[in-house]
Task: structure prediction
Amino acid sequence: MSGVSFTDVRKTYSDGTIVAVDDFNLEIADGEFVSIVGPSGSGKSTLLRMVAGLEGISGGEIRIGDRVVNDVAPQNRGVAMVFQNYALYPHMSVRKNMSYGLKLTTDLPKSEIDSRVEEAARMMGIEGMLEKRPGNLSGGQQQRVATGRAIVREPEVFLMDEPLSNLDAKLRLHMRTELQRIQEELDTTTIYVTHDQEEAMTMSDRVVVLADGQLQQVAPPEEVYDNPANRFVAEFIGSPTMNFFDGVLGGGTLVGEGFRYELPPDRVDRVEERRTGDHLVLGVRPERIRLAEPDDRDSIPAVVDVVEPIGSDNYVYLLIDDVECTIRVPSDVRPTEGDRVRIAFDDSDVHVFDGETEENLLVSAEHRIREPSKAAQ
Result:
């Protein structure tokens, strides 16, 4: 097994006019599970394909372990990839699908190949399906075959490109726990690309957030959520998304459309030191806003627009003048549309973003690029 490192990696198309990945740097520790998230077109799959050797790189260096693999053929990189569409051969049995790669790329005897296939099938719970063909399997079973095919190669690195996106919600949740169990059992370095932030947040040692081919933040899931490096990360991670309020800071008070908010004293100096101008943006997550008492002088007036029950909680959509705001409250709290209410922020969990750079003025550089933990290494 090996770690993976990216040094100033760049990928361009159309004679350099289209930049898919821009000067990407990252160290992934041996045995670490790292998820890469970002919107469509952010460069997630391109990064994965460059590690696999399915895409050439335009600049920089990729290492697997101690080897620079820029010019190494895909079959010689020691990686195994699980694709979104599973890429199984329909005319072959499960056994043959799982063993085919080993037969092509190794000199292992048939007995060793059979042993690996049967062990991987046992791990994936498909030992009774080895003689079936993919067309006779469900989507979840096909996903298990594709993952088992990767396991039998005993790679240095697993690469997974949205492997659960074709499954229904219940099966996706089940397969998430299965993949976690297998990765922990094998302790193989894993790079997992997904558009589903919930997968990334629940499965990963660290989460990499990409936008326009550029690294926005890499940190443990809870840190990405609690300490987003910039407005993009804050808006992309979390559902419902974070609330944002434009304002101007004066004397420790942020004044915006329809509200005034006094920043906690310990945060005013940090904001003043780092801001580049007068325009600031206050960020507060929906669960960090509460309905306040009518006589709470520090609260902000709002009007209930829509109430959306989701079972254990309700999402309440409010208007502060013309600014939209979402709060998350217990299911037994259900105001009526049109009600005039007051809200208050949790002072311990507000964020302040620079209006020009969009950087989180309350987050230090170490939160933006968090190195692998000793446990992962």
